[in-house]
Amino acid sequence: MLEKNVKLVNDAFKEYYFKHFELIHVPTRTSEREFGYQKFNDGMTRHLSIKDDKELHLLLMTQVPSDVYCSNAYYSFPNLPISEKDWKGADLIFDIDAKDLKLDCRTSHICCKCNSCQNIVKQGINCSVCGSTKLETISVPCKNCMSESKKEVTRLLEILTEDFGIQKEEIQVYFSGNEGFHVYVVNSDYQTLDSRERADLADYIMFNGIIPETLGMNKQNNSKSALPDVNERGWRGRVAKEIFGSKSKRAKIGQEILSGGYSVFQAKLEDWRPKIGVKIDPKVTMDIHRIFRLVGSLNSKSGLSKIMCKDLENFDPFSDACLLDDEKVEIIANCPISFKLKNKKYGPYEKEKITVPKYAAVYMICKGIADIN
Amino acid sequence: MIQLGIRDLVKYPFLAETGEYLRDKGFNLEQLGHPDWKPIVEKAYGRIVVATTGQIYGSAIEDFENMDSEILSFVIAIVLLKSAGIPTLIKRFSLSEARRAERYLQRDLLQKKNETKLELPLKIMQDLFSVKVMTKEEDFVISVSDYLKRAVQFHEKEWKLINRRVENGFVFLTAHETVRLIRKELDGYINSKIQAVNIPSIPETFRERVSDLSLLAKKFSEYVTVSSDYPPCIKHAIEVLDRGENLPHSGRFMLASYLLSKGQTTDQIAPLFKNAPDYNERVTRYQLDHIAGSSGKGTKYSCPSCNKLKSENLCFEIPECSGIINPIQFGKKRTANA
User: Fold this and answer.
1) Which of A215, B31, B166, B250 has the fewest beta carbons under 10 Å from its own?
2) Which of A190, A210, A236 comes nearest B145 by C-beta?
3) What is the pLDDT of residues B75-123, one digit of tens each?
4) pTM of the full structure
5) What sign does the dihedral A261-A262-A266-A269 (CA atoms) show?
6) Is there a catalytic annotation at residue A320?
């Protein structure tokens, strides 16, 4: 980030932290967590211990981090190097990100920035000014990205509660501050799972690795009665709903499946996977030493806050998580995409000098599509 | 508190109660060294031989006359194995005994209508392995986390959680699957029991069979032949890089750790990444050195397992991959010298 931009964003972040201590707290079991932070244009500082809210707030005020993180893991010695921390367990976390959902809308709200000359192009593999191939993709998520991500979260919550028996009170959903959601499970039964075990759990959620036998089809003999029924629970029930839609169609479609045989069914399962599996990022769930953005802190990719979604259905990240103040700021925006913040539309701008509220200015600067004037 | 009968001890001779039973009956090692007990020593040796061939020693459970000799043959087998001190035999014996116990556990679980019969197998699983097994409808259920902690050891697809009936935090299992799930722990438990046994000296009558065990062990050395072909995941990664396409970080890590484990040096590996869209020689070398353990904390990273690669969409399984759990095993064929 350019130095002149850093000053504005840094000041905005500092002001936010100063005004919003009530939103930023250390998580439970504080002394067992690892904390970390980054400053603008600087590397990561990890392996920190923080005692309480007071110490955290002091860090925010003195360091003014661009991003603050905290481990989902519990350690005996959180401030020692990874190999000496003595891992005790970790909350189960799922990451759902709009960019992984392969949504049709995405092409309409991404653009590319040339790393060599900073030129911004809507699409392409070469910079139209200098010809460089080093282009960075910038995404300005839209309403559809968020509503589709919310649908994934809802499907994940259904599996967590119905299949895994996790109580609703043990699940917390957070907007990540940029393009997605983090779902935390705080349940002692799942805390001690290692990385491999979490990977299998993630595969279950993503509908990865299912074999036809699980759904009543095998290589030798088949019968319609062994195929799943819409009233069944778990994946059998969900697949049945997907294949048959309704009970009345069961006989006919069942017959088609049986006549197609094992390998056809296997190929079909593979086809259904992207549609019915929940699109979580398995790498995040598998990682038991990761540090996650701290709840209440700002995301330097957007200037939006990572906040809890108490009412997911009605949650609007572009309003509810947009918490910087609205003092007017003059910037030069080069943003080929329009977007909405706090119900007001911005853009598209073509190297225009504009005056916008600070939260919109920070949003565009963080995205790399505007500079302070 | 469950009162164990002698028949339970025949089935599960590794339980702590066996020691009490033998003490109560007045058996000791010195006494078992008497030539009169030679047939039991032979029985014990036979029990080990059966185990080493990969079979399961069968006890005549209904034969009330020989209950003591069944229990004693297990105990003496351990004495013989400990004296010979050959890890491969101890390993084979504990696995075979685990599978034997597994049979009885399964049989006992199947008597689920009879609640008293069910008590012992459930208690063994709870006390020894901390797995709470409950009955539900026609099946047994265990918690998802207990299931995952064990099932990830298996590589057959049917053990993946997605291929299980999962409801309300519980995984449904048959009696057979329930006990299969704890085989490894049962094996580990029996093995640890054997390791913990301390035998100061053995009776003269045992010596011949102890030296026979050394001869027996010689049969089990293995020859390993290695093919020079790369596994499909590695080939794919190399092809992607060759084409100048982007290989995700996890793919690069796999490739580097695989080649390092095959003895290649960072100098040999670094050029492979030259075509990567974001290639930076300094960064590549730094990361390779880190994976190799020659920089950073000195931790040498090993190649990720096939399971992990599957989850990361880096696996391109072919029939030759059958039976391997890590790409580095690809192309190795084991032939037992038996």
Assistant:
1) B31
2) A190
3) 999 999 999 988 889 989 999 999 999 999 998 888 866 777 788 889 9
4) 0.81
5) positive
6) no
